[in-house]
Design brief:
Largest sheet: none
Number of domains: 1
Number of helices: 4
Radius of gyration: 15 Å
Structural class: mainly alpha
Distance between the termini: 12 Å
Number of strands: 0
Helix content: over 70%
């Protein structure tokens, strides 16, 4: 029987792939079109996508991997999405979207670190 974390774990991989692709696209856009907000959006996507990929792959060793990966992914989507919308449309997702995303990214990293202190079941 699959648990909740097992069922949603593929979402971490999906988000990692999406963020990696967006990061490359945003880097190209920042280079060719300019835009002060596209570079930081790209950097956050490209920093978190490989971390999420590692959390997906290491879920049997890191008890908090799925939660950490989802927190990083949603946080990065909020942060980068807000910056991109501000760059192209002059208005973000919602008030405090980027700071909320930043807090979720930090929470994801902290969850990943806390995983070092939690035992993993060997089943």
């Amino acid at each position: 029987m699959m648990g909740f974390c097992d069922r949603i774990r593929p979402l971490v991989l999906l988000l990692a792939g999406l963020l990696g692709a967006c990061g490359v696209g945003l880097a190209a856009a920042a280079t060719h079109m300019g835009g002060a907000l596209l570079g930081p959006a790209s950097a956050m996507c490209l920093a978190h996508a490989p971390a999420m990929l590692a959390l997906f792959a290491g879920h049997r060793l890191i008890r908090t991997a799925t939660g950490a990966g989802l927190s990083m992914g949603v946080g990065t989507l909020l942060f980068a999405g807000d910056l991109v919308l501000k760059q192209f449309y002059g208005a973000g997702l919602f008030s405090m979207a980027a700071p909320t995303g930043g807090i979720l990214m930090m929470a994801g990293w902290l969850m990943a670190g806390i995983g070092a202190f939690l035992s993993v079941s060997r089943t």
